[in-house]
Amino acid sequence: MTALIDVVVTEDITGAPLDELAARRQVVFRPDAWRDRTGLRDLAQRARALVVRNRTEVDDDLLGAPDLRIVARVGVGLDNIDLVAADRRGIVVSAPLGANAISVAEHTLGLALALARRTARLHAGCRAGEWDRSAGIELHGGTWGLLGAGATGRACGRLARALGMRVLAHDPGVDPDDAGLTAAGIELAPLVEVVAGADVLSVHLPATDSTRGLVDARLLARMRPTALLVNVGRGEVVDEEALADAVESGALAGAALDVRAQEPPSPGRLETLDNVLLTPHIAGITTQSQKRILSTLVADIDAVLDGGRPASAVDAWGRGRK
C-alpha cells in the first residue's frame, strides 16, 4: 500500500510557515505538479492536504482522493476550486479572505497613480535622454469606481478616500446596509452610474458566469475618455481586444492590468501601447501578505489533520463559514 503524505504543495509556494510545518509533518513540495494532470492526480490520491495557488485545477475528480481532508488556497481567488464538490465530499477549503487586501489595494492605487502621472513613460524617456515635463493629472477631487466591494475593493476604496476622492461601488452581492461600506466611505450605486462617473475604475471581481466579459466594448463606451481602468480581479472579466480598441482610439485615457485572460499572456496589442501598464498577477503578493496567508493556512491544516476546527474555511459559495 502506498504511504500517505500529510501535505502536498502543488505550485511554487514557499515561506517560513510552510518550512515550520515541514519540520513537524511530512510536506512534499512539487512546484510544477499542476502542469501534469496525471502526476497531480497520483499525488492527490496519497495526500491528506493540498496547498495550491491559482494554477492547480481542483475539480471533482481531484477531490475524489480517498484521504484528502483539506485544500488550502494561497490567495483569495477560488475559481480554480470546485467548492460545491468539496462541500459535498466534506473536504475543507481554507482561504484567508482579506489577508492580501492591503497589498492588492496598494498596488491598485500605485498603478492608477502611475497612469495618471505617466510614470513609466517618463521613466523610459529620461533613460533615453528626454526631458518631457508635460502635465499629468491629479486624482484628488475625482471619483473612484469599484467593480466589486469585497475585502480588496473596500481596502482600495479607503485609500482612494485618503486621496480625497469620492468612492462609488457596484456589487450586487453586498448588503446596502453593510456597516463596513459606511465605515470605508463607500457608496453603492448602479453599474451604469459607477462606470460613467468614474475617473478611475478598478475591477475586483472573480471570474464567474455573470462576470466573464463584463467589461466589454459597450461598458467601456460608457466611461469618460479621460478615465483610467485598473484590473486586479480576474483577467476574464475584461475583454482585452475591446480594451485595446478603447485605449488605442483615445476613448479611454489608459489602463493597467495585473491579471490577464491567459496567464502568462501571448504578446499582443496591449503590450504595444505606452498608456497601458502590465504587471504579472502580483498585486496580492507582498512579503507581509504571504506571511499572513501561509500562517493562516498552516494553522488550518494543523487543525483539520488533528481533528479540530479550521478558522478560515469557506462554504460552497466562497463565503467564510460561521
Strand arrangement, major sheet = 8-7-6-9-10-11-12
- Distance between the amino and carboxyl termini: 38 Å
Task: Please give the CATH architecture of the largest domain.
Answer: 3-Layer(aba) Sandwich
Which secondary-structure class do the elements indicate?
alpha/beta
Strand tally:
13
Portion in beta strands: 15-25%
| Rg | 21 Å
The parts where pLDDT drops under 50 for at least 5 residues are: none
Estimated helix fraction: 25-40%
Number of domains: 2
The CATH class of the largest domain is Alpha Beta
User: CATH homologous superfamily of the largest domain, by name?
Assistant: NAD(P)-binding Rossmann-like Domain
Mean pLDDT across the residues is 95
Secondary-structure element pattern, one letter each: EHEHEHEHEHHEHEHEHEHEHEEHE
If helices are DSSP runs of H or I spanning 4 or more residues, what is the number of helices? 12
Tell me the major beta sheet: 7 strands, parallel
Pfam families: 2-Hacid_dh, 2-Hacid_dh_C
Keywords: NAD, Oxidoreductase
GO molecular function, one term: NAD binding
InterPro entries: D-2-hydroxyacid_DH, D-isomer_2_OHA_DH_cat_dom, D-isomer_DH_CS, D-isomer_DH_NAD-bd, NAD(P)-bd_dom_sf
